[in-house]
Design goal:
By secondary structure, the chain is α/β, with parallel strands linked by helices. The chain has two domains: about 350 residues, TIM Barrel (Alpha-Beta Barrel), CATH 3.20.20; about 45 residues, no CATH class. The strands form two sheets. Strands 1, 2, 3, 4, 5 and 6 form a six-stranded parallel β-sheet that branches. It has a three-stranded parallel β-sheet with strand order 7-8-9. Helix 8 links the parallel strand 4 and strand 5. The protein is globular. It starts with a helix and ends in a 7-residue tail after the last helix.
Length: about 425
């Protein structure tokens, strides 16, 4: 049996390497630099902070074994994720988003929705044991790299999923959830969102207790989607590093979803990581402005299509895609991702930045990118700008692993304190 494993693992590694080498080189790329980028990318542990693929797993019965290239979600957005693309991406650890929408929050069923998505994620790992492995720790991510498998992790997107219950929070942790975005785009009972009316002036007293309990558990606090005041409150309270799992830099693109410079500086002091979102609207203000102008200009036509296809959702999606294609706007290049990395490196330091693509949660990716198979372009652009291999590996995954390991360490320290006190009062 051991001899068979010695044969199988190098063979898997060969196919993994060949998949990455098969990545198409950009037309204007330096071939020697490109080959160097491929080697660095292949050696690195790559951790992506956010992927919304569980939503179509639940809603559309999507299987990662499906060839998703050229296929569209029910809402008309292109797919970015499947097993073949994973192999080409070089990704070691992928956070599957347990996403609870504002609609779910308002109509109820938040916890049920989360449980459905956790089940779908776990079943997908069970369905593909040779390619995927379920992970709950930094050590398991490192082990997955040695095994040449993709490490599937989970993060809750929308803190209202816990339904105001620390008991629920603890049970989500027991199921393997390792970060929680404190809210999504709606303010709720204990945390304010970036684009909604403030209800709590940041975090409520219970929201602060949630952060403390996440620290105790070893669950990372995620400040993507939250208001600036919630960002500050979380940093005031936390004893562990925090993350922004899929946010970019406001100093480059002035969007409320991005992290401002004053918070970037505090995250550097905290040991946390801001993981860059790939959505053009968060990368480039000009794109966001043009997209809003196009939406206003085409609104009468889109409303007419919505009425025409009111009983045919797929027909509407196809007609809308065609209309938008006939009225194109400039899409920023993938190099804009590295502009945000550059900015965070300057403001907060190279140890404070990572990758949080938002694959399958955004309607499109930057120009030059079709899906996760094109992630090596970020490595190439960093190398082209003079980043060292050490710095590149930090951005691709080592910064996140350091923050994750520190959060785990804080949890172990807290566990020893509770054990020494002989009381569970702190966590009831």
């Amino acid at each position: 049996m051991k001899n068979k494993l010695l044969f199988i693992l190098p063979l898997f590694a060969f196919f993994y390497t060949e998949s990455l080498n098969a990545q198409t080189m950009p037309k204007d790329a330096d071939s020697n630099l490109w080959q160097k980028a491929l080697k660095i990318h292949r050696r690195a542990i790559v951790v992506d902070g956010h992927n919304d693929i569980p939503s179509p797993m639940v809603d559309e019965d999507f299987n990662l074994a499906t060839d998703s290239v050229g296929k569209f979600h029910r809402d008309g957005d292109p797919f970015h994720t499947d097993l073949a693309r994973f192999k080409k991406s070089g990704i070691t650890g992928e956070f599957f988003s347990i996403y609870v929408s504002g609609t779910d929050y308002q109509k109820g069923g938040k916890m049920r929705r989360s449980m459905d998505m956790i089940d779908a994620t776990m079943r997908e790992v069970e369905r593909h044991p040779n390619e995927l492995t379920f992970c709950q720790s930094a050590a398991q991510i490192r082990q997955a790299k040695r095994q040449n498998r993709v490490c599937v992790l989970m993060g809750i997107e929308g803190g209202y999923a816990i339904e105001n219950s620390l008991f629920a929070l603890r049970n989500f942790y027991r199921l393997g959830v390792r970060y929680m975005t404190l809210t999504h785009n709606v303010s709720h009972d204990w945390a304010d969102a970036h684009r909604d009316e403030a209800k709590n002036n940041g975090l409520s007293d219970f929201g602060k207790e949630v952060v403390r309990e996440m620290n105790r558990l070893g669950m990372l606090v995620d400040i993507s989607h939250v208001s600036d005041k919630v960002m500050a409150d979380a940093l005031d309270i936390t004893t562990a590093p925090i993350i922004a799992s899929h946010s970019s830099a406001r100093g480059v693109a002035n969007h409320t979803r991005n992290v401002p410079d004053d918070i970037l500086k505090r995250i550097a002091q905290n040991g946390g990581v801001v993981m860059i979102n790939f959505y053009p609207a968060f990368l480039d203000e000009n794109y966001n402005r043009a997209d809003n102008e196009r939406a206003a200009r085409l609104k009468p036509q889109i409303d007419a299509l919505r009425e025409q296809f009111k009983d045919n959702r797929e027909g509407f999606n196809e007609a809308e895609r065609k209309l938008l294609a006939e009225n194109p706007i400039p899409i920023p290049s993938y190099t804009r991702i590295v502009d945000h990395i550059d900015h965070i490196k300057t403001v907060a330091g190279i140890d404070s930045v990572g990758i949080g693509s938002d694959y399958d949660g955004v309607p499109l990716l930057p120009d030059g990118m079709n899906g996760m198979e094109d992630l090596v372009l970020v490595t190439y652009e960093m190398l082209k700008r003079g980043y060292t291999e050490t710095d590149i590996r930090k951005v691709l995954g080592e910064n996140f692993l350091r923050a994750f390991e520190r959060a785990e360490s804080v949890a172990r320290i807290n566990a020893r304190k509770i054990s020494g006190e002989g009381s569970l009062k702190r966590i009831k």
